[in-house]
Structure formats: C-alpha cells, structure tokens
C-alpha cells in the first residue's frame, strides 16, 4: 500500500481505533479536573483529528514531522485556535530524530531557537536546542499561545505568578512567586499562555542535551523577561539561531558583537 493511500483495511482500522484510544487517553490527561464536563468535547476533538488525518490522506499510525506541519496548516486555515486540538495533535507525533536533526543546532553557551515553519504567518514552529545546564529567563508569551513538546532528553518547566503591580515599579523589590515545577520527558507536551502565568525552562542535566518543539500562535518577535529576585521586567527581542535548517547570518553578526556579554534575551 502506498504511503498516502486512504487506509481502509481491517488491520488498519484496528490500529486506527488503537490510535483513537491513545488519543483519548492523552486528551483525558490535558484537563483531568474538567473531565466530566469535557468528555463530549474531547470526543469531538479526537474525531476531528482522525478526520483531518484521513482527509489529508496521512497515515494515522505514523505521523511524521512533515505530516504534523501539514495538519497544522490545515487547522490554522481556521482563525480560531482550539488548544485541545493542537495539544492532542502535537502529542500524537512521536519524536523521530531523523526527521528533526537538520534543525537541531546547538550552541556551546546558550540554548538556540531554530525556525522550522512560519505557518503562513499564523504560527511559528521551532526547535529549541538545550545544551547541558542551559535555561531560559523567566518570560511571558506576548499574548500568544505556547505549546512545547519534548523531542529528546528532559526539560524542567517552572511556572511563576505575574509580579504584582507594585513590583513593576523600580525600587520595589519582592521575589517572584513560583507556582509549580514539572519535569517533562520525551514526547510530553505542555501548554501555557499569559493568563496561566510566566515560566522558565531549564535543562537540569549536566550530562545530556535536550531538544524541544515549540509552537507559538500568533508569532511574536519580542516578549518580556523578568528578574526572579525583584519581579522587574524588561522587553526582549527574540531571534532565530537558524532558519529552515540554515544558520541565520544576522544572528551570527549579533553574536559577534555580544561575544563577551552573553545576554539571555531568547525564550
Ligand atoms: Fe516559553
């Protein structure tokens, strides 16, 4: 059977049902506290995903990174973002290094952001590469949705409350309040937006690198970063280390200028 043929055999139906069950399982973990209220809606999301994969003639049992991008483009033809749908789609992609290695570019000193797809201007899909001990600043997401999936290794996501108004004023010093911390393993997905809070992401390992896949919608080129000790924030431009697997020369120049002063301005 050709890779892109519509799947109709009994065996495949069984596999598809298994995939559906797996998707349902994953969906039930997204909002466990709301399970009773969202069962019907979750059912619809799963069916919708299966329908999308089928419509695009994609193998529902082996979603590739290329397939994932294709389905995302289809989903984003609609202007409304359905968080559960994107979460479950990203969960259903199983990390395959052969598919994303060309985007995985590491830097010795800090983590890198590598653009994979611009999503027709509606979203940015990127791969972040975290060397041993690398971490981000505490940051917001400029009113965008942020999905993060671990492709390799583990990452710790630490969430914080927004600083209170008086902390935003220069002179007031009050440490930021941590809400939660969670270690995410390969293929796990998390979601955050500004109404949930702020976060910092860290590779806690000093012997292993990590790689993560991020989807931001809408795309943004600046965000706020926060000082954990004071709650003070500053605006920070976000840039790409590479674009479509090729080194971004603008970043190279910028790095030469800041060579002796490593600034954490990326999220
Ligand atoms: Fe983030």
What does this structure look like?
- Strands 7-4-9-2-1-12-13 form a seven-stranded mixed sheet.
- Residues about 1-20, about 20-40 and about 250-265 have low confidence and may be disordered.
- It has helices at about 10-30, 35-55, 65-75, 85-90, 95-100, 165-170, 250-255; strands at about 110-115, 125-130, 140, 145-150, 155-160, 180-185, 190, 200, 210-215, 220-225, 235, 240-245, 245.
- It folds into two domains: about 5-90, no CATH class; about 100-265, Jelly Rolls, CATH 2.60.120.
- It is an alpha+beta fold.
- The longest helix has 21 residues, at about 10-30.
- About 30% of the residues lie in helices and about 25% in strands.
- The protein starts with 9 loop residues before the first helix and ends in a 10-residue tail after the last helix.
- It contains seven helices and 13 strands.
- Strand 10 and strand 11 (about 235) form a beta hairpin.
- The structure holds fe (ii) ion.
- Fe (ii) ion binds near residues 141 and 146.
Per the CATH scheme, the topology name of the largest domain is Jelly Rolls
Bound molecules: fe (ii) ion
Q: Which strand-content bin applies to the residues?
A: 25-35%
H-E string: HHHHHEEEEEHEEEEEEEEH
Question: Would you spell out the secondary-structure blueprint of this structure?
Answer:
Layout: H1 10-30, H2 35-55, H3 65-75, H4 83-92, H5 97-100, E1 112-117, E2 124-130, E3 138-139, E4 145-152, E5 155-160, H6 165-168, E6 178-184, E7 189-192, E8 198-202, E9 210-217, E10 222-226, E11 233-237, E12 242-243, E13 246-247, H7 249-257
Parallel strand pairs: 1-12
Antiparallel strand pairs: 1-2, 2-9, 3-10, 4-7, 4-9, 5-6, 5-8, 10-11, 12-13
Bound molecules: fe (ii) ion.
